[in-house]
Specification:
The chain is an alpha+beta fold. It contains 14 helices and 7 strands. It folds into 2 domains: about 1-220; about 230-405, Reverse transcriptase/Diguanylate cyclase domain (Alpha-Beta Plaits), CATH 3.30.70. Mean pLDDT is about 85; it is low at about 390-405.
């Protein structure tokens, strides 16, 4: 029994170390950390009870210890579910834990049968480990590195297989020979692999927590805190990358968007109203953003929308739909209700474009849209026509003034 005790004691120490690590992460906003913490706490409690077999009452070392160990598996699965934003099937899991308790009582006090106790516990562990592997693969966030999730799932399936083999091994033993086989090479090997289940999975869980925390920091750095759009720096970085990849077969279009008379909105409804309008616009514009597109806040009330693999005609149609949607939107809040409109300038990338030149051409189109009456869309193709109309509008008052003077 010394070998089995040594394995259980060593594993308890590993679980205690992981418990301390998870304790340092309890204040983090990442979901699932508390459940993983309680999973390791359950292991720290159950393993010494199993190691003290014959030194303490059987009810504690067999029934209580196995129930608490089963709770460890249930809590670990719950941590994975919460981390991935999935509901936790507490009723089914606690029903499984209760069945383990009943099995331990029956096969210790009604029919003393060690192999069946091992089969019961390993069956539960096999199911839990398999469920952990499945949820990690099926619900893995697509915007995260797959390494941690694949590694954790692989380990979970490996442990599930080990537990199943150990259960099948004990099914071949008669009750009177099972005690003598506890220190066999087969049982020690399988027990050693099974014993490191929780510390190993917890180590991977800590890796996933750190990955999630880094993702939150990266998101905060790359996104405007008020609207959720990309920051100017990140938008410009994406512009450079997309310009480098642009080609005739995959044209790149930039929409520069300005909220009309935004100062008037701030003056009328206060900065809280202005902020709400900005958030409402980004939320509405997000419905137009396709995979691969990029929406960024370039400063104040000006936004940019990059449309890779989009023709000028398709971009113009999208811009017009966006303009019409903004014109019809009513933003409400404690400040009251507010309507707003937008002006949009469109430019299509040229192969020799630098980011500054690309942006300048879209800015020129935006300037024309604003100076021709706002709440409209202008593109490079429409600039000569718009500029001619603007010149004619400016000449009419001048001619009227000259005619009056001559009269």
């Amino acid at each position: 029994m010394l070998t089995v005790v040594s394995i259980l004691t060593t594993t308890a120490l590993f679980s205690l170390a992981m418990l301390l690590v998870l304790g340092s992460l309890l204040r983090s906003p990442v979901a699932g950390v508390r459940e993983w913490f309680f999973a390791n706490l359950a292991m720290v409690v159950s393993l010494p009870l199993l190691a003290l077999r014959t030194a303490i009452p059987d009810f504690i070392s067999i029934v209580v210890a196995n129930v608490v160990m089963s709770l460890a598996g249930a809590f670990y699965y719950a941590g994975c579910a919460r981390f991935l934003g999935r509901p936790v099937p507490w009723v089914r899991m606690l029903a499984g834990v209760a069945l383990i308790g009943i099995a331990m009582i029956v096969w210790r006090y009604v029919d003393a049968n060690l192999p069946m106790r091992v089969v019961a516990s390993t069956t539960f562990n096999t199911i839990v480990c398999t469920a952990i592997g499945v949820i990690l693969l099926r619900r893995r966030p697509r915007d995260r590195s797959p390494y941690n999730f694949w590694f954790a799932a692989l380990m979970a399936f490996l442990f599930a297989g080990t537990q199943m083999v150990r259960g099948l091994y004990f099914m071949t033993l008669a009750p009177d020979e099972s005690l003598a086989m506890l220190n066999s090479v087969w049982n020690i090997s399988l027990l050693t692999v099974g014993a490191v289940v929780m510390p190993t999975l917890t180590m991977i869980a800590v890796m996933m927590v750190h990955d999630a925390m880094l993702a939150k920091v990266e998101h905060a750095l790359n996104h405007d805190h008020l609207t959720g759009a990309l920051t100017r720096k990140r938008f410009e970085s994406i512009t450079r990358d997309l310009l480098a990849a642009a080609q005739p077969a995959r044209p790149l279009v930039l929409l520069l968007i300005d909220l009309d008379h935004f100062k008037r909105i701030n003056d009328t409804h206060g900065h809280a109203g202005g902020d709400e309008v900005l958030r409402a616009f980004v939320q509405m514009a997000g419905d137009f953003v396709r995979p691969g597109d990029a929406l960024g806040r370039l400063g104040g009330e000006e936004f940019g929308l990059l449309l890779p693999a989009t023709t000028a005609a398709d971009a113009a149609a999208m811009a017009e739909s966006l303009r019409a949607q903004a014109e019809g939107q009513v933003v409400s809040g404690e400040f009251g209700s507010c309507r707003y409109s937008i002006s949009i300038g469109i430019a299509t990338a040229h192969w020799e474009d630098s980011p500054d030149r690309f942006n300048a051409r879209a800015d020129r189109a935006l300037y024309a849209a604003k100076n021709s009456g706002r709440n409209r869309v202008a593109s490079e193709e429409t600039l000569p026509k718009l500029e001619t109309e603007m010149e004619m509008e400016m000449e009419l008052p001048a001619k009227a003034g000259r005619n009056s003077a001559q009269a």
